[in-house]
Design a protein that fits this description.
By secondary structure, the protein is α+β, with helices and mostly antiparallel strands. The chain has six helices and ten strands; from the N terminus they run H-H-H-H-H-E-H-E-E-E-E-E-E-E-E-E. It has helices spanning 7-20, 30-38, 42-49, 57-67, 71-76, 97-101, and strands at 86-92, 112-117, 125-128, 135-136, 145-149, 159-164, 167-177, 180-184, 194-196, 203-211. Strands 1, 2, 3, 4, 5, 6, 7, 8, 9 and 10 form a ten-stranded mixed sheet that branches. Strand 6 (159-164) and strand 7 (167-177) form a beta hairpin. Helix 2 (30-38) crosses helix 3. The protein starts with 6 loop residues before the first helix and ends with a strand.
Length: 212
């Protein structure tokens, strides 16, 4: 019964599945799009998203069909989840990555999506090597798509997308102390060979997968 469903837990699962389906972030158009898609008022959409109230059984059924999850999972967290084990993530121009990570990238700037394993975090994104706009320090075919997971913690020997001033590039991390990293700076002019990362905000995201 719906009366046995925890409203807060439901809202958390609803927001999770909306993340997986590339809905705009909360307070950036998510409520409006949800209201439009399910023909409800903005207030009703806000109540669902914030754990104030629950949808009707009819709307729960529509939500489960739309997002390919079970009604039991939406209501109670049971027998999750999507049948495919995949999620869609946006393919970005590398110059848009900082804006995307700040939740301020217009949805109109995102032209395509690819499917990846849902073990990747909800903020994951991809960069298509065909665009040829990113510097990197290893050989890679132009047919590749690089998948990044901003919620994955950096660690030694992982490749990461870094931003120094206006330049964005991909390089391998070198951990020289706990949670302190450096990188091979050969891609940078007029710098030592190995350069410490003084501000961890320089690390935009860790590379989690390469798709061909």
């Amino acid at each position: 019964m719906l009366t046995n469903c925890n409203k807060t837990s439901f809202s958390q699962r609803l927001n999770l599945v909306l993340d997986k389906h590339n809905y705009p972030p909360k307070n950036c158009g998510r409520m409006s799009l949800l209201a439009e898609k399910f023909e409800i008022t903005h207030k009703a959409a806000a109540n669902w998203l914030n754990g104030v109230s629950l949808p009707s059984r009819k709307k729960i059924k529509l939500l489960s069909e739309m997002f390919d999850v079970t009604e039991d999972w939406l209501l109670f967290g049971e027998k999750d989840t999507t049948s495919s084990g995949l999620r869609k993530i946006p393919v970005l121009n590398f110059l848009d990555v900082p804006t995307y990570l700040n939740d301020s990238l217009s949805q109109s700037r995102i032209e395509s999506f690819i499917e990846v394993h849902d073990s990747n975090g909800c903020r994951s994104f991809a960069i298509d090597m065909k665009h040829g706009q990113i510097n990197f320090d290893f050989l890679l075919t132009k047919e590749a798509k690089l998948v990044f997971d901003p919620d994955r913690a950096p660690s030694d020997k992982l490749f990461a997308l870094l931003q120094l001033k206006s330049e964005v590039f991909l390089t391998r991390l070198i951990e020289f102390e706990k949670s302190q990293f450096a990188f091979n700076a050969e891609l940078q002019l007029n710098t030592p060979n190995i350069q410490a990362i003084k501000d961890n905000n320089t690390i935009l995201s860790v590379l989690s997968e390469i798709k061909f």
